[in-house]
Amino acid sequence: MLSLESKHSASALYSRWDERTSPARFAGNDDVLDMIYFAKRKGNKVFLVRKGSKSLDLFATVFRGQILPHGEGSVLQGSFSKRISAYLLLAVLLVLDGAFAAKAYSIGVLDWAGAVGCLLVAALLILAAIPLPGARKRYTAFMRDITNEE
Prior knowledge:
alpha+beta
């Protein structure tokens, strides 16, 4: 869970969020290979993902949070995760991996190497669901820039 305090009021932070995450701010936002921050805001709820402007990165780390009034300022708080579609795809792949292992075991062709292989595939699928620390640092630095500037 990330929580960033700001001296700005919640309404000022809404406008700063909208202005700083506008696609017009990113040079090359029309190029497929450039990485930009894509953001949405609906009321006080915010969504942020770093991706190519013309592509869909299913396994990109996303930030989901909200901007709330806090004392004389406001606070941006939320958490990092993957897209829901990524979790659904990983669940389907885990079920298929388990079904493959169960079928191979039932017909007697699953030896220790096959079992280890199935476990490694399952472990890699589970690891794909964890947001990367480097992505968290980049997102946090970008959001600190929004919350702390004068």
